[in-house]
Every structure is written in structure tokens, then in C-alpha cells.
Amino acid sequence: xxxxxxxxxxxxxxxxxxxxxxxxxxxxxxxxxxxxxxxxxxxxxxxxxxxxxxxxxxxxxxxxxxxxxxxxxxxxxxxxxxxxxxxxxxxxxxxxxxxxxxxxxxxxxxxxxxxxxxxxxxxxxxxxxxxxxxxxxxxxxxxxxxxxxxxxxxxxxxxxxxxxxxxxxxxxxxxxxxxxxxxxxxxxxxxxxxxxxxxxxxxxxxxxxxxxxxxxxxxxxxxxxxxxxxxxxxxxxxxxxxxxxxxxxxxxxxxxxxxxxxxxxxxxxxxxxxxxxxxxxxxxxxxxxxxxxxxxxxxxxxxxxxxxxxxxxxxxxxxxxxxxxxxxxxxxxxxxxxxxxxxxxxxxxxxxxxxxxxxxxxxxxxxxxxxxxxxxxxxxxxxxxxxxxxxxxxxxxxxxxxxxxxxxxxxxxxxxxxxxxxxxxxxxxxxxxxxxxxxxxxxxxxxxxxxxxxxxxxxxxxxxxxxxxxxxxxxxxxxxxxxxxxxxxxxxxxx
Length: 495
Hints:
- The chain is an alpha+beta fold.
- Helix content is 21%, strand content 27%.
- It has helices spanning 2-23, 114-117, 126-131, 172-185, 207-212, 214-217, 227-232, 258-273, 316-324, 350-365, and strands at residues 36-38, 43-48, 54-59, 62-67, 73-78, 84-92, 96-112, 135-142, 160-162, 189-195, 243-247, 293-297, 331-334, 377-384, 387-393, 399-403, 411-412, 421-425, 442-443, 445-449, 452-456, 463-468, 479-481, 490-491.
- α4 crosses α10 and α8 packs across α9 (316-324).
């Protein structure tokens, strides 16, 4: 009899627990203690409850109400909050859910493959960086969800306060970026690491944006398209974010210009994913895009240098596609050809990468206009007799022959000579690119002339094009601006 009563009691207890669970108001896990909410955009809070249940959301002096739909889903949009905290988020229905120690600041997604996933514990100077990582104004969310065939509703992870205990396994690039932003602005920073080693760009891309990109729509759709997006990006929206960081490309290393179109699909797709945050009114049938800042890393130098001035080996072409991706609005690129490792696809200097990404954000998103956010970027050329004059954006304080040793900015090499410039010429009677053009590449002499570079060779009488650092490992590239940032590799030809 005792066993029967005990059994009935267990059944009754389980039934009560199940009924209670059904009645509980539930939030996505990223609305957890220690979260950072995005400032200056509408605050969208969502979750689940019983169908028809009335739900109230309160934070600071903001409040709103709604009713869960027939599937038990609910969503409330509150007016924007300014940076500050800590706050409590209270969500009440038949039960009450209180989220504590919330800060309001800027939230950045840190995504890509293994070089973004690479933890602070494996980076250069790791011990000192970890010991100094006690900062309650920086919060970390490490997403570890699986690949999925359909978009997930939630992630299995919650926020943590940045500390020597929580930071070693977190993205080193992401951490150094967030630290640099916070050091310069004092704004609370939330970092969401959603990265996966060895992955290509395709599974991070929403299928709709792939189809909307003309150069991709005509191709066969990859079988794993959007699978990582479904598990690790889709469930994050519409949680407010400031922007995204992207370090990926090694797994697409054989791509050429097509990678630019893949980047367009990725960036536009993510901006559509967060379109609900946009205040812009979309045209009929067009998904609105949120004004998401997107800063990415150009692939670092790797493997042995190529002695052939023509170049074009390995990652040379995908770097050009990454450079071209700067044409997409609100993007920026951290050049990394001087901080890689010939024998390691995972270079340990993640601090410079994070800082270079942060310089883009500080200049473009934080009104730090005095910060030069990039090294020289090729802008155009002019043929002057037997020479070609190259013009650049982001000259900053001027051009220089530079040398970078370890961490920190490069230093000027007085009387140094520019390296890794190649030039080719053509038969003057033939149009550039025609059958009469020789297109024979030779190493060139290059000299800084004011804000430009003059390139020439005694072997080329009628020059038509220049290449710089156009190889897998452009060892020796040494064009910098005097702000200590390297020039991106480039090519002026299209053949």
C-alpha cells in the first residue's frame, strides 16, 4: 500500500511539474543574468507562454504588454535604452521571470571559422592577457549550438561576466576587439562568439539571400547551405546587436571573385535577419535590412613565399575578393599579411587582429574620426611614360616603408626599399589585354612619392598593370602608412 501511495505521489508530482512548466513564462536563454542589451535601438523581448496568456515586460522605466499567440509565442518591443545599468528585466504572466545584472551597451557578434574560434588561452602573451581580463563591463556569450536543417528557436548558452575564469576559451580576436572598444569608449560591451572551425562561408548564409544574389542564384545550392546559420545565427535574432566581426576564408581558399558575391549574400542575409530592428519602412515584398556594421579579416600570410612576380597562388585571389567586399556598405577590413605565420594556419598574434578590427569600429561607429582605421588601400593608377603612379585611400599621416616586429604598430625604415611590387607591359600598338599584349610580369622598383607610389622596371617600356603582394605568402610586403598599418595586397589588372 505504501508503494502504491508513493507511486501515486510521484505521478501527481510529475503532473504538477508538467502543468507548472506549461504555465511558466519562458525567455530565450540569451536573456540571462549578466546579459548586455543593445543601446539606442528598440528593445525586442520575446519568448513563450501558454496560448492566450497575458505577458508584461518591464525594464528600467520601460514596460509593455502582449498576449501569447496560439502557438504560445509572444513578443514585446520597448523604446530604446541608453547605455548604463545594471538593470533587472522582469517578465510576468502566470509566473514571473526576473533577469538580473543586465547592462545596456553595444553587442557584437564574433563569427567565422577557427581563427575567430581560437581561444585567448592559446594566443601570444596569453597568461598576462587572461590575468588582466577582470572587467565586469565586458560580457561573453559563447554559442555552441549544432548544425540544423531548419532555424532553431533558442541556443543552449547563457551570458558570463568577463574574468580570468571565463575568458581563456573565448575568442581571442573577439576579446581584444571588445577590450579595445571598451578602453576607448567606456561603453559596456557584449561579445557573442558564434564561430566554428573548418567551416566554409556557405553554411553560415541564409538561403533567401543566396537566391537573391544573381551570381549565386544560377549555381547549384550547396547541400549544407544555412545549416550553421540555422543553429548559431538565426536564433540570436532579433536580439539587438551593434555589428558583426567575421574571420573566415581559409575553407574557401580556392575561391576567386565568387567569394565577393558570397560575402554579399552573407552580409545582406544577416542584415535581413535583424531587419526587425530597422526603423526603415521596406517596400512591398522587400525584407528590411538592419544597418548592421560588418568588419572582417583579410586572410593572413601562410606557407612559403612565391618567387614568381606573377603570383596568383593560394589565397591571392580570395584576398582580392575580400578587398572587393569593401564595396558593400558599412564594412571594413583588417589586413593581416604582416602578422601571420608561414608554418601555422592559426597565427598566435590575435591582439593586433582584434585591435585592427576595433579601429574600424571606433572610426565608423564611435565618432573617433581621428583614428586611422586602415592601412593604404589601392584606389587608382595613372600611366606616366614608363612608370605607373598608384593612388591610395587611408594614407593617414603619409606612406612609409615599414617593419613590424611582434605586437604594436610598424616602424618606419629610413632609406628602406619597397618590396613585392610587380609590373607588366604591353605592345604599344595593341590595346591592353589584346593579343599583342605580352603580360609578362617582372619584379618592379617602387618608390614613395608624396601620397603616391611610382612603380617601374627597366624591363618594361610600356607598363599597363601592377600587382602588390599577390601571392599566398607575400613575404616582404612593407608598404605602410605612418599610422603603422599595412597596405592590402592588390592588383590593377583583371586577367
